[in-house]
């Protein structure tokens, strides 16, 4: 499952990490680890969405099953 670099960039920006002093930059060990984690997160979200779609489930179904 391909994840475009631009999608990881956008997620990193949305997390606010592009300006965070905790992560010193993409070329650091911490920056690379963050980007690997974001990529794993994106892939996991896609897999969950695909499985939910295959089963005909929606977000409303998830809320009902939790009693929300």
UniProtKB/TrEMBL annotation:
Region (Disordered): 1-30
Top-level division of the source organism's lineage: Bacteria
Name under which the protein is recorded: Malonyl CoA-acyl carrier transacylase, FabD2 domain protein
Organism: Mycobacterium xenopi 4042
């Amino acid at each position: 499952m391909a994840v475009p670099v631009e999608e990881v960039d956008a997620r990193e920006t949305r997390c606010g990490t592009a300006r965070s002093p905790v992560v010193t930059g993409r070329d650091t060990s911490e920056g690379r680890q963050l980007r690997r984690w974001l990529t794993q997160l994106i892939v996991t979200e896609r897999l969950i969405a695909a499985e939910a779609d295959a089963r005909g489930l929606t977000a409303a179904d998830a809320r009902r099953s939790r009693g929300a």
